Amino acid sequence: xxxxxxxxxxxxxxxxxxxxxxxxxxxxxxxxxxxxxxxxxxxxxxxxxxxxxxxxxxxxxxxxxxxxxxxxxxxxxxxxxxxxxxxxxxxxxxxxxxxxxxxxxxxxxxxxxxxxxxxxxxxxxxxxxxxxxxxxxxxxxxxxxxxxxxxxxxxxxxxxxxxxxxxxxxxxxxxxxxxxxxxxxxxxxxxxxxxxxxxxxxxxxxxxxxxxxxxxxxxxxxxxxxxxxxxxxxxxxxxxxxxxxxxxxxxxxxxxxxxxxxxxxxxxxxxxxxxxxxxx
Length: 280
Prior knowledge:
Blueprint: H1 4-17, H2 23-35, H3 39-44, H4 52-66, H5 71-75, E1 77-80, E2 83-86, H6 96-111, E3 118-122, H7 128-136, E4 141-146, H8 149-161, E5 167-170, E6 181-186, H9 201-204, H10 220-228, E7 233-242, H11 248-257, E8 261-267, E9 273-279
Parallel strand pairs: 3-4, 3-6, 4-5, 6-7
Antiparallel strand pairs: 1-2, 7-9, 8-9
């Protein structure tokens, strides 16, 4: 049987061979997951032998990661905002860029005094956007909607994890929704079809294609949502999108042509255009 120290060394060597620049970090995270202990314990008990079944599980994890299977899917969770959300291959892995969407929506909600505010998270995936907003603002009503039944199973797990109450709908965009809301937030598929093959293998080969492919120019879902959204927004209601870094002007024009006012663009932490929003 191998020791903890030997497995850590094995993991680092294999991951570095695969070109993983975070090998030193990921090898320990995966061994923590297998052994159910923290890194400090591993450092203090490096000579401890690991059961054969756990050794094999760890080596299987390392092999999968060397084939670019996403770390978050191996762990079954991803960090987003102040929380940890369940994820699997049925949903996109939450990204730091999307936190700007939540922060911008949070700023808007903080300005509203009406306790009857209702928010719709459209194309919700794991539910991380809407659930984060509900955890910050327990008074709001929340609706989560997605086309994928499998994705909504993940959504429900995350709702249960944080004991969040929300209406969960399955349908093509607004298909299953009736009524009006103060705010629609959405991170729809927006990758141009022609560039999907150039994405990182972790994304291209494992994340759900239906959540990535935005059509030939990446704007298919923005066109549909912008066209239909006014029917589901209250007077003065807001529509807020995450966008690709080169889509700000196109999405802004779509919204302005549909009658949205004061359409603004907000940058992410890397200084790239990331959020477009406006109101009726």
